[in-house]
């Protein structure tokens, strides 16, 4: 049979091929049940409205002025929240026995995880499209060129991709999908609110919080997206974001694959 | 190579539970091996070990000469696993489920679609192929699961309680499929809690209890150990039970067991022809039986005679 390759190990190109097939599976699932996208559709709308009208006047004098710094911040924040859904669905898959079938197939161990993470890009895209569309409706305008805007979304995706692996880890460890939700909020809250997502100027925060905000990858991402979307110096924030993303993937990917392999 | 599945001294512990306590399994090519046992006997752990999903703590196992730990990748090319809980993707349609597996094992787009369609036809699912699997009945879902297991032309097929929860008709359909698979040359390892299922399908049966193999043989050999069938006579009038016991003892040559509460007299019976002799005997004695039947020993009776304890632990003194 031609499908059977001779080697013992499964090469990177086949691993990626398997991963893409399984990503197709995730996307097809979403096509059949679009209601699974409800969270990433509504969250940007709710967050935009709430933060804009609660903080707008105080922070920037007007909601219109605040919108220009809030929206790029939310681009950074929404990804972090959207990635939590991945752990939940992974935990569900494992419980239902779907992953047992994958594990008994001659495919790379990491393929189901890679497929799940790649397929999850759909949720990120939906979240970003809704956020940008609704923001524009409220009066947000990009002040830079399309290339910079694309770079901003690219950076946001890079960190999103990395955090997806944390979500995968949580999904593998958690005893039930409900637990994944709870755990997800616990790490997503300080990560996104303890950052410059809501306020470009973090100077009024107490010292200990500033220390955290300064190292927080979401701060670097928010600062970078803000500069890339409405103008201003990007500085090293883009590099810090990419470094963080790479670091997170390097730290979590092998652990996730190892734990998945051991899972019984 | 006679034995396609060969396991020696498999041991596996989960925390406090010794799921496998030294299990040997042999299965010849082109046969059905039935693994019979109650819940928690270690059947599923054994199957998962042979399917490379679990590493044994001790012992070794080979499938077609490949070690399930060291050569796991090769083993996975030869096997298919159909789980106790149908492991199809409920969100996908039947055809999408099959195409996904075909793509994963390396077939091209066209070939995957063709295989999916063939399998759907073969399992009478062509009409439901475009519907999400979550809308399927239990029997359809199990058929889809079996079909998914056949996408990569496996030589060894593990079926972990394939008929649990199915109605008799769906169960028969699964049985027919298993017979067909073996005719086509596959080797099947099937776990079950039902004696009649093992009897109907398996060439050899191993009986599991507390992670050990307590008996091994053909269903004939096992039945001999257990004593063939059981004759059960219920007295309409409890007072006349002793007379029934007398007739039954005379015909079967065994010492009948009696249950005063239900009025039931039971005895093992090897020769079904003896049933008429019992009827005649009862008639001559003028005793009326409210119920008279020959029945197969239940799994519980098999267990009782093989292990000296009941299949399902009573109460919570496990």
Automatic annotation (TrEMBL), chain A:
Membrane topology, as annotated: Multi-pass membrane protein
Residue stretches spanning the membrane: 37-58, 70-91, 112-138, 150-173, 180-200, 238-260
Entry-linked InterPro entries: ABC2_TM, ABC2_TM_bact-type, ABC_2_transport, Nod_factor_ABC_transporter
Keywords: Antibiotic resistance, Cell membrane, Membrane, Transmembrane, Transmembrane helix, Transport
Domain ABC transmembrane type-2: residue ranges: 35-263
Record keyword Signal present: no
Major subcellular site: membrane
Subcellular location: Cell membrane; Membrane
Pfam name, any one: ABC2_membrane
Signal peptide feature range: none
Similarity comment: family membership: Belongs to the ABC-2 integral membrane protein family.
Name recorded for this polypeptide: Transport permease protein
Organism of provenance: Actinoallomurus oryzae
Automatic annotation (TrEMBL), chain B:
Higher taxonomy: Bacteria, Bacillati, Actinomycetota, Actinomycetes, Streptosporangiales
Family: Belongs to the ABC transporter superfamily. Drug exporter-1 (DrugE1) (TC 3.A.1.105) family.
Places the protein is found: Cell membrane
Keyword set includes Membrane: yes
SMART domains named among the record's database cross-references: AAA (SM00382)
Domain ABC transporter, chain residue ranges per copy: 5-235
InterPro entries xrefs: AAA+_ATPase, ABC_transporter-like_ATP-bd, ABC_transporter-like_CS, ABC_transporter_ATP-binding, DrrA, DrrA1/2-like_C, P-loop_NTPase
UniProt xrefs under Pfam families: ABC_tran, DrrA1-3_C
Species of the source: Actinoallomurus oryzae
Descriptive protein name: Daunorubicin resistance protein DrrA family ABC transporter ATP-binding protein
One GO MF term: ATP binding
Superkingdom assignment: Bacteria
Keyword line: Antibiotic resistance, ATP-binding, Cell membrane, Membrane, Nucleotide-binding, Translocase, Transport
Membrane topology category: Peripheral membrane protein
């Amino acid at each position: 049979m031609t499908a059977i390759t001779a080697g013992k190990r499964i090469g990177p190109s086949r691993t990626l091929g398997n991963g893409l097939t399984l990503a197709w599976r995730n996307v097809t699932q979403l096509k059949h049940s679009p209601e699974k996208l409800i969270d990433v559709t509504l969250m940007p709308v709710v967050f935009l409205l709430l933060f804009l009208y609660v903080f707008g006047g105080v922070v920037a004098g007007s909601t219109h002025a605040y919108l220009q710094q809030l929206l790029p911040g939310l681009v950074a924040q929404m990804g972090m929240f959207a990635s939590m859904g991945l752990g939940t669905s992974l935990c569900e898959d494992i419980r239902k026995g779907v992953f047992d079938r994958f594990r008994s197939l001659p495919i790379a161990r990491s393929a189901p995880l890679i497929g799940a993470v790649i397929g999850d890009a759909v949720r990120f895209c939906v979240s970003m499209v809704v956020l940008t569309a609704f923001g524009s409706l409220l009066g947000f305008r990009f002040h830079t060129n399309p290339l910079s805007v694309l770079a901003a979304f690219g950076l946001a995706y890079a960190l999103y991709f990395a955090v997806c692996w944390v979500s995968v880890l949580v999904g593998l460890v958690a005893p039930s999908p409900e637990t994944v939700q709870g755990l997800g909020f616990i790490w997503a809250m300080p990560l996104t609110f303890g950052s410059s997502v809501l306020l470009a100027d973090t100077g009024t925060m107490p010292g200990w919080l500033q220390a955290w905000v300064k190292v927080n990858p979401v701060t670097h991402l928010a600062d970078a997206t803000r500069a890339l979307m409405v103008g201003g110096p990007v500085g090293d924030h883009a590099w810090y974001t990419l470094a963080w993303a790479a670091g997170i993937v390097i730290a979590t990917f092998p652990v996730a694959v190892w734990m998945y392999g051991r899972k019984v | 190579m006679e034995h396609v599945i060969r396991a020696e001294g498999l041991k596996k512990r989960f925390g406090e539970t010794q799921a496998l306590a030294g299990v040997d399994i042999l299965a010849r090519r082109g046969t059905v091996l039935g693994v019979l046992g109650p819940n928690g006997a270690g059947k599923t752990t054994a199957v998962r070990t042979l399917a490379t999903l679990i590493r044994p703590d001790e012992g070794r196992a080979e499938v077609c000469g490949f070690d399930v730990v060291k050569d796991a990748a090769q083993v996975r090319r030869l096997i298919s696993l159909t789980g106790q809980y149908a492991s199809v993707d409920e969100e996908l349609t039947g055809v999408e489920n099959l195409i996904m597996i075909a793509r994963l094992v390396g077939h091209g787009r066209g070939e995957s679609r063709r295989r999916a369609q063939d399998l759907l036809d073969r399992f009478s699912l062509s009409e439901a192929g475009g519907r999400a699997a979550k809308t399927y009945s239990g029997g359809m879902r199990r058929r889809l699961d079996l079909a998914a297991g056949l996408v990569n032309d496996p030589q060894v097929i593990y079926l972990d309680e394939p008929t649990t929860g199915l109605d008799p008709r769906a169960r028969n359909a699964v049985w027919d499929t298993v017979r067909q698979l073996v005719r086509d040359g596959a080797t099947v390892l099937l776990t079950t809690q039902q004696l009649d299922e093992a009897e109907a399908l398996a060439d050899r049966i191993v009986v599991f209890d507390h992670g050990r193999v307590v008996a091994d043989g053909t269903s004939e050999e096992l039945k001999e150990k257990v004593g063939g069938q059981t004759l059960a006579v219920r007295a309409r009038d409890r007072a006349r039970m002793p007379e029934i016991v007398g007739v039954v003892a005379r015909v079967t040559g065994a010492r009948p067991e009696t249950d005063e509460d239900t009025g039931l007299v039971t005895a093992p019976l090897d020769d079904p022809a003896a049933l008429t002799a019992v009827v005649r005997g009862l008639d001559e004695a003028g005793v009326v039986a409210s119920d008279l039947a020959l029945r197969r020993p239940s799994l519980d009776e098999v267990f009782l005679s093989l292990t000296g304890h009941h299949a399902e632990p009573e109460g919570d003194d496990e």
